[in-house]
Amino acid sequence: MHKLAIAVAVVAGSLVLGATATPSGQGAPARASGTLQLRGTLQVVSNLLECPIPDTTAGICAARTGTGLLSGVGRVTEKYAFLGDIDIPACGVGRGKTFAYPVSLVVFGKGEIHFALAEGATCVSNEAVRVQSQSFTVTGGTGIYAGASGNGTVARTLGAGTEIGRLGTETWIGTLVAPAVDVFDVTVPTLNGAVSKTVRAPRGAKTMRVRFTVTAQDAVDGPRPVRCKPTSASRFKVGKTTVTCTAADTSGNVGAVRFTVTVRAMQ
User: What is the mean pLDDT of the chain?
Assistant: First the structure.
């Protein structure tokens, strides 16, 4: 494997992530490691759930699900039961905290990562229980993540309710350690062919159809599909237009390049 593997805190959802790695140049070979450091923000859906804990008299229980890409890991899904309680006698009226519960992250084609979320560290207002931050411990996993370890924290936000529940985010920050070294991939694909160009439109024309070719090569996955906006063969207006092209690998790393298409009117 030719990509640098580094460090993570994870759960599922739809996300935009950032990872830290020793610079090696875009697409250049990098050292492999079994430790990943990552900050990931995921989009989640939270639906009310009947509380499964008998002693919970005023529980806040929700089924939370999500899916997305985690940089260095790949496409993931998650589903877990969020558990909390309000008006806890030890906290006082109008205050409560989250319970401890497990969360599993399923990584497509690779295995699962298992987490144990700890009880809320302090008492918070009843409304804040739904978004209370929790610390976590990685308790193992399956597939290439068997024997995984690590720890970190997860912070949350929730928006207004919708027909499908409440939409929100989870930001996971921490460390994920795998027993094998070639587990994590954080090197983005290399894009080639992104070269600025100038074309002349026919006399009187306000647009010009412009074609270009941009390819992507990944150190682990090989050739990858490229998406450009605007696309090749689009009609470009007279003047300068910036084209943005991206390519993603199966570990959730996204490479991006930009170039300029200049269309000049015939004098």
Answer: 84
